[in-house]
Specification:
52% of the residues lie in helices and 10% in strands. It is α/β, with parallel strands linked by helices. It is elongated and about 90 Å long.
Length: 445
Amino acid sequence: MTPFTSANPFARILGGLLMNDSPRGTSSRSPVLAILGSLVAGAALAVALFFTVASSGSEPVVTGSVLFAFGLGWAVMAFTTSRFSAQPQAWTAVPAAFLGFIGLGLIVFQPGPAVMNLLSWVWPPALAVLAIWMVIQVRSHLPGRGRWLVVPVIATLLVFAIGGGIATVSAATAVARAGAGKMIDVGGHRLYIECTGSGGPAVILQAGLGASSSSWVGIAPAVAATTTVCAYDRAGHGRSDEAGPQDGIALAIDLHTLLERAGVPRPYILAAHSSGGPYVRVFAAQYPDEVAGMVLLDSQPDDAFTALPNYPGFYANFRTVATLSPSLARIGLLGPLLGLSADESTVAAARGGRDEFISLPMVLRQSAALTSIGNRPLIVVTAAAESDPGWVAAQERLPRLSTASVHRVLAAATHNSLISGVDAGASSQAILDVLASVRAGTAIR
C-alpha cells in the first residue's frame, strides 16, 4: 500500500493532486506543488516587501514592491515546473517579466503623481490583454487540477485591470463639484475656502483627519445665520491642490495665509472636530493673537498614544491601510473596501489621507506646545457613547487650556454624530455659545 492509498481522506485528496494531474502516457510528476509553492512564495515576498521596503512608502514603491514580488513568483513557477514536473509552464515567464520589470521600474524611478496618472491609461488595457493571453496558455498547457490554482489568480489580475480602467476614466470625466467658495494661492499651491453669513468674529471650521469642508454641511448653515463662517479644504483634500506631507506648523501657516488673502478679519473662533483639534491648537500656538475663542468637538488629545490604551495598536494597523490606500484607489477598490464616497476614494484623496495620518504623531507633539489660551472662551464637547477606553478622561484635560471653559459630555452622542448626525445641533450650539461669549465679553452660559 502506498501512502496515497490510505483510508485517510486528506491523504487520498493529496495523492490525487500529486499523481493524477498528468494525461495518460506521461510522467506522473504533477506541477501542482510547484505552482502552489510559487504562488505562496510570491504572496509571502509581497507581504515581506510591504512591511520592510514599502513601509510608509509612496504609491510607486508600494505598487512596485507588490508587482515585483508576484513577478518573481511567476518566474519561480516557470523554473520549478520545468525542473520538477512533467508539465513545464514556460509561458509563465511572460507574466514574470511583465510584472517584475514594471514593479522594479516603479521602485527605482518612483514616478510622481502626474506620471502615475498617465500610466493609468496604459496599464489597465495591457494587463487585461495579458490576463486573456494567460487564460489561453492555461487552456493549452495546463490540464488538470493545476488550473484550480492559476485561473483565480488570473481572474484577479483581470479584476484589477477593469477596476483600474474604471477608476481612470471616472477621474478624467468627473465634473468639478460646484461650490460657492474660491481657490486661493497660499504659496505654491491653492486652497479652497467657502465663507457664508456675515458679521464677526468669523468662525473657522477645521475638519477631521482625511475629511474636507463638505463634512460641515450639517453645522455651517446654523452658524452662518448669526456670523461669518468659513470652511476650507486642507491641501490634498476636497477641491484644494496637493502639497505633499505637511506637519501641524505647515498647516497653520497655510490657514493663516489663506484667511489673510481671503480677507477674513481676525481674530477668529476656531471650531474643530476629531483630529482637526490638534490642527487648531497648533494654529493657536503659532498665532495666539488671531484666536478669539475655540470649540473642540470630540477632539483628538495630544497624549493619545499614552492616554488611550488601544490607540497605538489602532494607529499601527490603520497606518498600513493608509499606506496601501493610494494603490487600492488606483485599481478602484478603495471605495468598495472601506465604504467611501467617490470623492473620498480618489487617488489624490487617498494620498492626502495617507500623508495626514503618517504626520499625525508629529502634529500631536506640536499641538502639545499650546498650554493656554488665557481667558478666551473654550467649549469642549465630548461624545461618550462608543468611546474608547481613556477617551473621556483625556477629554477632561482639554478644558484646562482656558480659564473660561466649559466641558459638555453628551452621553448618547457618538464621534460622528457630533458632526454629521443627530447631535450636530449640539455642536452648532456650542459654537454659537462661544460666539455670544466673545461678543458680550461675558462668561459662557
